[in-house]
Structure formats: C-alpha cells, structure tokens
Automatic annotation (TrEMBL):
Protein name in UniProt: DUF1761 domain-containing protein
Transmembrane regions listed in the UniProt entry: 6-26, 54-74, 80-100, 112-133
Origin species: Mucilaginibacter pedocola
InterPro entries found in the cross-reference section: DUF1761
Domain of life: Bacteria
Alphabetical UniProt keywords: Membrane, Transmembrane, Transmembrane helix
Amino acid sequence: MDMNLVNWAAVVVAGLSAFAVGGIWYSRALFGNAWMTDSGLTEDQIKAGNKGKIFGFTALFSIIMSANLAMFLADAKTDMAWGATAGFLAGIWTFGAIATHSLFELKSWRHIFINGGYSIVSLTLMGLILGAWR
C-alpha cells in the first residue's frame, strides 16, 4: 500500500456517493416501504429521528469505509475495473456481517437482502469511483 496513491478527494466523493445510492435504494419507489415494514418502523418514527445525528454519522462512516477501501486499492495497477471488483468483494463481506447480525435480531430474509444489497451496490460504486479517479 502506497499512501501517496490515495486520492482523498475521491475518498470523500466515493464515501458520499453512498447517499445517492441510499436515496434511491430506500425510496418508496424501490425498497423503502418493504424496509420500513421489515424494520418495524412507522413513518412517524422515521420523521421523529434526529436527522443531524443520522446523516452526520452516516457521512462519517461512509467516508471511513471509502478511506479503508482506498487504502486497499492504493496500488499503481488499480483501475476502474479492479476498484469496482474490490468494492463488490467488500460488499459481499459486509453483506455477511449484516446477515449475521440480522439473523440474531430475527429479521426477515427480505430485510437482510435489502440492507445487504445496499451495501454491495454502494461499496461497488465506491470502488469504481476510487479506481477511476486515480
């Protein structure tokens, strides 16, 4: 790993790309209604949530994940294809963690695939951005 090959602007953009994916993924048009049902949350509960805390920590953790992925990709041979592949593989890894926690929380398979699928898609996009923006 060569830290000089980490593009920190790309890390931030890739990390924040998770917001774009999440906005689409958890929209009512895609998986939002199913996710709310399987999470046992109502619209009122979601509206009552502390948005600053939720979005602030989400941004922080997304950037941390992006930085971690960028460090794994800090090699002169990294390109867009390898970045996307590494992101996908990281997504599979996090899918496994999400599935394990969710099974103990007695969540449905639908819930697991919604959250795990988001992780796979968002990390694949992060890797693609990091690999492309060298």
